[in-house]
């Protein structure tokens, strides 16, 4: 009986911890020209909704935060060509432009986000100090800090319940694929030099 109670308590504790964590956090890692490149992001879950219904809720500027929870961050140790646009080594926030019709674009921005102070007074230690994206007014708040707006190519991919950023080798660089729901988009990361 005592063993069952201990096992039940452990399972309950793990479930509560997982529930409290919210959407899972992930890092897509690769190398380009022998240098590290990473995208840190929250993985929102569709939870029975459709991607189309979520995209209908975007603000008027049609810019989405490209993740969940803290801001999605691209960090590169080397200068890159992303979709043919030069991006210097450093850290950047990522957003997506999601028009009702037409091509999506990856927005690469120097702004590192808003302080979580006041937003998450009880945030978990691993997320509490990470900045948060600008939610409702990208154009009015940080569009002037945009480094590049990279067109994304829509591709077919298996349906995913959670948002996934992944890299695969492509020539001298890598291909970034962003997948969520029934949609996926790609762009190339190449060495700039």
Features of the shown structure:
13 strands; 193 residues; alpha+beta; 4 helices; disordered N terminus; single chain; seven-stranded antiparallel β-sheet; 41% strand
The number of helical segments is: 4
Considering DSSP H and I runs of 4 or more, what fraction of the residues is helical? 10-25%
What is the CA-based Rg, rounded?
18 Å
Strand content: 35-45%
Overall pLDDT score = 84
Structural class: alpha+beta
Tally the structural domains. Answer: 1
Largest pleated sheet: 7 strands, antiparallel
Terminal-residue CA separation = 66 Å
Total strands: the figure is 13
H/E topology pattern: HEEHEEEEEEHHEEEEE
The low-pLDDT segments are 2-21
What is the overall silhouette?
Answer: globular
Q: What order do the helices and strands come in, and which of them pair?
A:
Layout: H1 2-21, E1 25-32, E2 35-42, H2 51-55, E3 63-64, E4 73-76, E5 80-82, E6 85-87, E7 90-97, E8 105-109, H3 125-128, H4 138-141, E9 146-151, E10 153-155, E11 160-170, E12 173-181, E13 183-191
Antiparallel strand pairs: 1-2, 2-4, 3-7, 4-7, 5-6, 5-13, 7-8, 8-9, 10-13, 11-12, 12-13
Provide structural commentary:
The protein has 193 residues and is of the alpha+beta class. It has one domain (23-191). It has helices spanning 2-21, 51-55, 125-128, 138-141, and strands spanning 25-32, 35-42, 63-64, 73-76, 80-82, 85-87, 90-97, 105-109, 146-151, 153-155, 160-170, 173-181, 183-191. The strands form 2 sheets. Strands 1, 2, 3, 4, 7, 8 and 9 form a 7-stranded antiparallel sheet that branches. Strands 5, 6, 10, 11, 12 and 13 form a 6-stranded antiparallel sheet that branches. The longest helix is centred in the N-terminal third of the chain and has 20 residues, at 2-21. It starts with a helix and ends with a strand. Mean pLDDT is 84; it is low at 2-21.
């Amino acid at each position: 009986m005592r063993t069952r109670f201990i096992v039940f308590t452990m399972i309950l504790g793990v479930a509560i911890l997982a529930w409290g964590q919210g959407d899972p956090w992930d890092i897509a890692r690769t190398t380009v020209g022998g240098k590290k490149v990473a995208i840190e992001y929250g993985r929102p879950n569709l939870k029975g909704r459709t991607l189309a219904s979520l995209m209908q809720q975007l603000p008027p500027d049609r810019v989405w935060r490209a993740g969940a929870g803290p801001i999605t961050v691209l960090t590169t140790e080397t200068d890159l060509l992303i979709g043919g646009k030069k991006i210097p080594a450093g850290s950047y926030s990522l957003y997506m432009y999601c028009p009702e019709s037409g091509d999506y674009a990856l927005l690469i921005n120097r702004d590192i986000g808003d302080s979580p102070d006041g937003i998450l007074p009880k945030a978990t230690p691993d997320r509490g100090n990470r900045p948060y994206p600008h939610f409702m007014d990208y154009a009015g708040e940080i569009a002037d800090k945009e480094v590049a707006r990279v067109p994304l190519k829509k591709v077919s991919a298996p349906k995913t319940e959670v948002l996934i950023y992944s890299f695969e080798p492509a020539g001298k660089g890598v291909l970034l694929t962003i997948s969520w729901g029934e949609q996926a988009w790609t762009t190339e990361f190449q060495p700039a030099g």
